[in-house]
Amino acid sequence: MRGELTQSRRCHWQQLHVFGGAARVYSLTLARPRSVTRNHTRTIVNPYDSRFFVGPSNVSQRGMSDREVDQLLVERAQRGDRRAFELLVTKYQRKLSRLLSRFIRDSAEVEDVAQEAFIKAYRALPSFRGESAFYTWLYRIGINTAKNYLVSLGRRAPTTTEFDNDEAEDFEDAALLREVNTPESELLTKEIAATVNRTVEALPEELRTAIVLREIEGLSYEEIAEAMNCPIGTVRSRIFRAREQISEQLKPLLDVGKDKRW
Amino acid sequence: MEKISQLMDGDLDAYEADALLKRLKSDASLRESWQVYHLVGDALRQEHGLTGRIAARVSERLEQEPTVMGPRFTASRRVVRYAMSAAAGAAGLAVVAWLALGGLPVNVTSQQLAGTPDAAAVAQQAMVESVTAQSTALAAETDAVDEYLLAHRSVSDFRTMQGTPPYVRPVASE
User: Fold this and answer.
1) How many whole angstroms from its chain centre is CA B67?
2) DSSP 3-state helix, strand, coil percentages of chain B (rounded to 5)?
3) Contact: B40, A215; criterion CB under 8 Å
4) How far is A151 from chain B (nearest CA, A)?
5) Which candidate, A234, A232, A235, A238, places its Cα nearest to that of A54?
6) Tell me, what's the pLDDT at A206?
7) A69-116 pLDDT, tens per residue?
8) Is the complex ipTM higher than 0.90?
9) If you compute the radius of gyration of chain B from its CA atoms, what whole number of angstroms results?
10) Least CB-CB distance to B24: which of A87, A96, A128?
11) What is the pTM of this model?
12) How close, in Å, is residue A242 to chain B by CA atoms?
């Protein structure tokens, strides 16, 4: 999928993009890409052209990386802030579950092992030095927890070569995923997915494009601004508005307002 | 809420992010946005199990866990570095002050350092006698030099004295 979009960005005016396999199709219209490379060196066409707004002053170089934000949360958790650790759990619970579901079939078992892995990670927080990304560290704990669990049941545990750190950082092999939800959680999962998809389809085109490029393609604000030919501030606003509109549709499905987690 | 969106996308600097994380600790509505926004992203990416029961269960378990003690390897590094620098500076000042107050004789030997307080006192007395003898010898040597200079003042070239005009004679030495 990532390759399809990259290829399409080489073209001038674009077309249809397919994300998430056959299940979801989002139609995106992207602007003509300028002479911009990944390392943000730009060819200035006409600095007096009001449309040429992406320049060094507009390039966001201040932002913290995902890893740095995680590190901030870890440091707060290490100082006794449990809420900070809960934010990390909220962020990574589904990613870790997806990892574990590759070799534990039963959804209840996946949840048990994931929960145990998070608790082990919390207990081991004082020893986390920040030398690797938090998720890489959590990934190793998750794998070890799953191994121990499978060994305790007399099942075959995954070998260390079955997963490596690259997968931990960029875990994208959706074809290997299994649907392991229980009936009740599967129903809620389907409702959530249907609501999100329905809402995304109904979003104004510029909001839909921005949120899809961000959440599915993982593009930065700068890259989205280049692809959509708009200022970074506009990208920031569009992504936020898209999230808000989808959230409003989701909240009735969720037990919100009591600081619950889902 | 837009700040949460920016935090998720790496669009806040360290100061803003830290301030927002502080607010997240006490602001339930912000935490709710964090949760729902991540759910939106996970749903779009078709992540596994959108119900989020794991977070709820982990949260319940964390209530029974002892609080994690302070950071050992991350934020404390700077503090430790500064503390070590300050301690080194203070130790240096203490040593200098101790030496200035005569705490350690200059020519004391390692054996004397390892010896008893009596041995140290004896060493200090010996050093005082040694310094007195050296001073007497130096005074005698200075007198001899003065006599030599007076005897040879007629052949000395006072005009080559730096900073002195050639026509000025050092009358005082006559």
Assistant:
1) 33
2) 70, 0, 30
3) yes
4) 22
5) A232
6) 94
7) 999 999 999 998 899 999 999 999 999 998 998 888 888 889 899 999
8) no
9) 39
10) A87
11) 0.61
12) 10
